[in-house]
Amino acid sequence: MKAMILAAGRGERMRPLTDHCPKPLLQVGGKALIEYHIEALAGAGITGIVINHAWLGAQIETALGDGQRYGVQLEYSPEPAALETAGGIVQALPRLGETFVVVNADIWCDYPFARLPEEPAGLAHLVMVDNPAHHRQGDFALQGDRLGEQGEPRLTFSGIGVYRAELFAGLAPGVRPLGPLLRQAMQAGKVSGEHYRGQWWDIGTPQRLAQLNAQLTGDG
Question: How many domains would you assign to the chain?
Fold first, then answer.
């Protein structure tokens, strides 16, 4: 099974840090955010990784290379401008296979990727986490092992999931968000989920980046 790391965002809320550095290369705890994901995926035996990029994407390719030093094989899916999550996945589909992992580059977590299902029961399996202070309303409701729009408890999508290519079948290339596809699949009962209670950070602001760095370096 291959993985895709979503690294094409502009990082507007992280400015001025992202004016000259793509968000996935921002340093925390002594290494770039994206390196934590590459190492964690490699540790789970997932060694074929596709990275999409747009803003300052050449820096990402220069910094990471072919992935040899991480024990993985990196491929890149350049986007002239960010295609959003589903659009980026559609463009990269020919490199991903029938079932694949997707992870947002701009999170930090200690989730063990080896516990992800190799074959989701439906079209997607999402890792959900407790709602952070900046997103108290959550995203979806987890009832048993099924996700839906209504019900309790409502949890936040971590940015980690396993998808079947079938979810994106027939979609034309272009800018396309993931949310509507997931909601449609949820209505058909085809999205499973799990509640992960470990460490998870959404690195959406310079303040949260600094807080995480302080935790990882022992300065917090």
Answer: 1
- Structure confidence by residue, pLDDT tens digits, 94-104: 999 999 999 99
Cα separation, 14 vs 50, whole angstroms:
24
Q: How many CA atoms lie within 13 A of 27 on its CB side?
A: 5
Q: Compute the distance between CA of residue 174 and CA of residue 150 in angstroms, rounded to an integer.
A: 29
Q: Is the dihedral of CA 76, 8, 28, 16 positive or negative?
A: positive
Give the pairing type, strands 124-129 and 191-195. Answer: parallel
pLDDT tens digits, 8-54 = 988 788 899 899 999 999 999 999 999 999 999 999 999 999 999 99
**Cα 172 to chain centroid, rounded:** 22
Residue with tokens 């001025």: 16
- Alpha carbon of residue 65 to chain centroid: 20
Structure tokens at 33: 């955010």
Q: How far apart are CA 69 and CA 114, in angstroms?
A: 21
Q: SS3 for 209?
A: helix
CATH code: domain of residue 71? 3.90.550.10
